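Good morning C.,

I know you're traveling, so I'll keep this short. The sequence:
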Amino acid sequence: MTTKTLDFSCELKANGDTGTFEGYGSIFNITDKGGDIVVPGAFTETLATQKAAGRMPAMLWQHRQAEPIGVYTSMEEDAVGLKVKGQLALKTARGAEAYELMKMGALSGMSIGYRSRDDSYDRVTGVRSLKKVDLVELSLVTFPMNDASRVSAVKTIEELDSLSEIERHLRDACGMSKSEATTLVSRIKSVSGRSDSGELGELIALSKRNQNLLQP
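The tokens, ready to paste straight into the viewer:
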């Protein structure tokens, strides 16, 4: 059985520099540019089968089988569609590239690679309803066919786990040099009196109030 693709677009927020993101790989009950609709329950069996086998559909770049760019950590159907969470492989060239483009908003599309198990075709409207599919892969793509499905979240600084991650965020997302970021985090630690394993929420709030610490 031939694997087909069905595209969606995804709204993205960056999660610091952890490479994690979330969004919808498919939106239910919306006709895409190719005349297909995914109905609720279409992914139920394929997700259960893959969960039982201890695996997830592949995360690919533009449907290229030779270019995996990370892994999915969660997939589930909700009232909207196929909700997913993923982790990009930032130490690979393509994974890092995808993440930078996602943070900029230049890449926000998602597209499923699937095999139809049960569908129906309406000859009057020309619309095909996908009732049951085998989900093979879910790609990040540039030009989706359905604008409703987008990456919805990329981890924010409030969700970072360590001072080293905050340091990287200050460098990469806020434009600080390595020495500036290191100095700010060190001074925040000194002011807060907390270690790396302490409550980072207070530390982060403190950093927002003390940006002027770097000023002469």
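Safe travels,
E.
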